Amino acid sequence: MSDQMAWLESKQWLDRAMEWLEEESSEMASTAAKMFDVNLSSIRTRQLCKRHQERNSCGIFNSHGGNNLILTNAQEQSMSCFYLEQLEMGLGATPSILYAAICHLRQ
Questions:
Q1: Closest Cα to residue 105, out of 61, 83, 75?
Q2: What is the DSSP string of 39-59?
Q3: How far is Cα 59 from Cα 57, in angstroms, rounded to an integer?
Q4: For position 24, what pLDDT does the model report?
Q5: Cβ neighbours of residue 21 closer than 8 Å, sequence gap 6 or more
Q6: What are 60-97's pLDDT values in tens digits?
Q7: Which of 85, 89, 88 is nearest to 101 (CA)?
Q8: Mapping DSSP to helix (H, G, I), strand (E, B) and coil, where does residue 4 land?
Q9: Which of 90, 88, 81, 60 lies closest to 101 in space, CA to CA?
């Protein structure tokens, strides 16, 4: 349990170092690493990931993958309702029916 607490604490220090670097744009990553007692490579990795973030089809940033989202939240909810309606009628929804419904929503 203490290892997990130490990891959370180090993550908080890294978050603080990144915030400080954003506020003090003239400072270098090595200065923040020394001030907040975090690994320099961790700061540089975060900076690199931030620079290479891409927007998904909805126009928002994904932290870890997920750039292949094809439905909005409202469309997902309508698919859930469709599936439940099919289930209540005793028809069930085959993968081909769900695929056709998703294609219809995407048009």
A1: 75
A2: -HHHHHHHHHHHHT--B-TTS
A3: 5
A4: 87
A5: 27, 29, 32, 43, 47
A6: 666 666 566 788 888 889 988 988 888 888 887 888 98
A7: 85
A8: helix
A9: 81
25-57 pLDDT, tens per residue?
Answer: 888 999 988 988 888 999 998 888 777 766 666
Cα three-residue angle 84-89-95, rounded to 5 degrees = 55
Residue 61 DSSP symbol: B
User: CA–CA separation, 82 vs 26, rounded Å?
Assistant: 54
CA gap 7, 18 in Å, rounded: 16
Backbone angles phi, psi at 61, to 5 degrees: -85, 140
Distances in whole angstroms, Cα of residue 33 to Cα of each of 10, 27, 46, 52: 12, 11, 12, 21
d(CA 25, CA 28): 8
pTM above 0.70, yes or no: no
The first and second tokens of residue 1, run together, are: 């349990």
